[in-house]
Recover the amino acids of this structure.
């Protein structure tokens, strides 16, 4: 009975880790932390999304509408990347300078070129500067979610990216150090991403575009301080008690391999106080 009860609780956590209501997901493409899909009880499996020959950045607003549609709350008009800027080989170094320390991430440009081009495009516009990582999960799955300028879980750019480089048939699907896209369903990627700080079994529905080279200890330290739950019945999901604010995101040009990294900097003193749940919580799902 105890095993069955724990299984039920874990299933509930997986089903409820959503940012935004189902209605809003349909209307504005709200982004899930991970995951909008329940763990599959059957034999179904996601199919791997190969990188398309051309990147399709789908506008959030209908471009064929007779009059321009207002963008949903939290969506910023930045324009989509130019197809000519997409690089389809090599890797890139992403440097995240945060209030808790510096993370360095290898972006798998050759495996997820459309996603990599989008991050390069957005970082070049300082899209991520002075944004918080608005969500942390500490039970069942182990991720921190960032990349929403609104800090609500509902924000992003005015376009969506197709899935690519899905980790089908990999165990675990999202190992420690993975950096992947949060989404609101198939082919709805925007700017929100998550960093896995402990092996997590999730449906293979989230584009993997990189892995942490330095700084995962920063996220683990933040996770150890816990969360401010947005729902009392799901105490392991909410804003991190120790705020993580991205001061800047820098992405280097693509290269066949990365140069040697500088030594990791000592961790700064833990930045507190925490952000109040009312300031970061997503709408109830």
């Amino acid at each position: 009975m105890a095993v069955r009860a724990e299984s039920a609780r874990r299933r509930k956590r997986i089903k409820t880790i959503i940012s935004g209501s189902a209605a809003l997901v349909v209307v504005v493409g709200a982004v899930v932390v991970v995951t909008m899909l329940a763990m599959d009880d059957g034999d179904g499996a996601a199919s791997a999304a190969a990188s398309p020959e051309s990147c399709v950045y789908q506008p959030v607003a209908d471009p064929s509408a007779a009059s321009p549609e207002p963008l949903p709350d939290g969506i910023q008009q930045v324009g989509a990347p130019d197809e000519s800027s997409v690089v389809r080989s090599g890797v890139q170094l992403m440097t995240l300078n945060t209030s808790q320390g510096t993370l360095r991430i290898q972006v798998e440009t050759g495996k997820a070129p459309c996603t990599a081009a989008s991050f390069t495009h957005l970082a070049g516009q300082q899209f991520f500067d002075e944004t918080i990582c608005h969500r942390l999960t500490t039970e069942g799955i182990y991720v921190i979610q960032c990349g929403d300028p609104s800090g609500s879980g509902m924000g992003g750019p005015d376009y969506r990216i197709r899935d690519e480089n899905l980790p089908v048939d990999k165990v675990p699907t999202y190992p420690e150090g993975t950096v992947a896209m949060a989404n609101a369903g198939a082919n709805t990627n925007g700017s929100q991403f998550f960093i896995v700080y402990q092996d997590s079994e999730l449906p293979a529905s989230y584009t993997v575009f990189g892995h942490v080279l330095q700084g995962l200890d920063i996220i683990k330290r933040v996770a150890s301080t816990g969360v401010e739950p947005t729902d009392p019945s799901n105490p392991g999901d909410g804003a991190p008690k120790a705020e993580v604010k991205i001061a800047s995101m820098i992405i280097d040009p693509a290269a066949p391999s990365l140069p040697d990294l500088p030594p990791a900097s000592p961790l700064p003193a833990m930045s507190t106080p925490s952000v109040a749940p009312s300031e970061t919580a997503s709408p109830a799902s």
Observations:
- The longest strand covers residues 92-98.
- Residues 2-39+75-277 form a domain with the Cyclophilin fold (CATH 2.40.100.10).
